[in-house]
Amino acid sequence: MYKYGVTGSILAVAGGPILLEALTQSGVTKSIIDSFVIGSELSTSKRILSAGMETGSQLATGTDIRDLDFIDIGAQSVFGFNTFGSVLTGSVLDYSPFSVSSGYFGFSVNTGNRAVTNLGTGAVSGLSTDFIMKNVKSPSASFVLFLGTDMIMKFNANQINKVAND
Hints:
By secondary structure, the chain is mainly alpha-helical. It contains seven helices and two strands, in the order H-H-H-H-H-E-E-H-H. Strands 1-2 form a two-stranded antiparallel sheet. It is globular and about 40 Å long.
């Protein structure tokens, strides 16, 4: 096991610069900085649309109205739909004030496997959204693809969390 860990570390150290170079050239790093550090410049209508898409996506994937996660909805409207800032915020924090199973006044922090599952599926959805924004020119097709990708990833995360993480 020790030998595997050392070998894995060597590979990670050797591959790190290559990964950073690939991310820089692909534009993913700029998307992360734009959406999370600088903040997105969304109009009021786009903020409302992002919040509505998140609410609809949660309801369409089997979330009860009382279990809606308001952190996810708020993060989508602040940072934009499936941007890295909203994915990171929504993966770690939950706020469901009307939920029966929620923790301290509706707040909970996702840790361990649940946080990893949410972050992984959110990252796939975010990368897909980023790809769609850059390559699909039709607004209606983009809208359908955004929602479809988001709902597939939410459904998968919900199923994994029910089976393995609860």
